[in-house]
Specification:
- The protein is an alpha/beta fold and 276 residues long.
- It has one domain: LigB-like (Protocatechuate 4,5-dioxygenase, Chain B).
- It is 38% helix and 21% strand.
- The protein is built from 9 helices and 12 strands.
- Strands 2, 3, 4, 7, 8, 9, 10, 11 and 12 form a 9-stranded mixed β-sheet that branches.
């Protein structure tokens, strides 16, 4: 299946030249690139969260396979929807879906279902791709949206992803490759509270991510009513990353939309974090 972009020309520029220029404005050039197991990255319109996304992608090595996980904002599709095969059309080129890894994830995670419909209008994964394309033209993706935010589902998905990645690595090494995979959790943080309130709440969630505490993040979001839209993908990513050997995490940048708009009464928080 060929998926068309849902938010080109709205969340980000819709033509190749303008999009490359827009993304480039957020990139920190000539930084030393590091290998990452996972990242946390925002998905708002680039005018608001582009600098956070740019700061993260400027610092990491982009492998040939990227798992994109995000929340299901539309309510369409399955509880956990894996885009199983096909291509995603973007202004700066077509991106193939890694159907082999998608099949492995569907095999190892019993909570995930093959489903195109959940992805048709969802923006949270799409907005990551232009940043990846800025640094790489040779990569494939496995898009996953999550609507069921229960801890059991997050753990099942995360552990299933880790098992699938390990199996892919094994197969690729047998063929002389490395099978490296990056897991992207696409999320914004607190929504529509004051700048100070958002910072206070978001720090509680960020501290759990930095501790690689998947269960603690899930509990903290629930306990403090943190409106982090992609907490479930982040919890799943943490479970997967720990199984894949993650030892540390670092906060690259945090800001709120108020720092762009000047409205500090109703902000959205954005965090960029690297898991290694």
């Amino acid at each position: 299946m060929l998926r068309q972009p849902a938010v080109a020309g709205r969340f980000y520029e819709g033509t190749p030249a303008l999009l490359k220029k827009e993304v480039g404005a957020f990139i920190e050039e000539d930084l030393k690139k590091e290998k990452a197991i996972g990242i946390v990255c925002p998905h708002a319109g680039y005018v608001y969260s582009g600098s956070v996304a740019g700061a993260v992608y400027s610092r990491i090595i982009i492998p040939q396979t990227v798992i994109l996980m995000g929340p299901n904002h539309t309510g369409i599709g399955k509880a956990v929807s894996v885009f199983p095969e096909g291509e995603w059309t973007m202004p700066n080129g077509v991106v193939p879906v890694n159907n082999k890894l998608a099949e492995l994830i569907l095999e190892y995670s019993k909570t995930a279902s093959a489903d195109h419909h959940a992805h048709q209008y969802e923006h949270s994964l799409e907005v990551q791709i232009p940043f990846i394309q800025y640094f790489s033209k040779d990569f494939s993706i496995v898009p996953i949206t999550i609507m069921d935010t229960s801890l059991k589902t997050c753990q099942s998905l995360g552990e299933g992803i880790a098992k699938a990645v390990l199996e892919l690595k094994k197969r690729e090494k047998e063929k002389g490759g490395n099978g490296d995979v990056l897991i992207v959790s696409s999320t914004d943080m607190t929504h529509y509270e004051s700048h100070d309130s958002a910072k206070t709440k978001d720090k509680k969630a960020i501290d759990k991510i930095l501790s690689l505490d998947a269960e603690g993040l899930h509990k903290t979001v629930k306990e403090y009513g943190i409106s982090m839209c992609g907490f479930a993908p982040t919890v799943s990513m943490l479970y997967a990353s720990k199984m894949l050997g993650a030892k540390k995490a670092k906060l690259i940048k945090y800001m709120t939309s108020g720092e762009v708009s000047g409205d500090y009464q109703q902000v959205v928080g954005y965090a960029g974090i690297i898991i290694q």
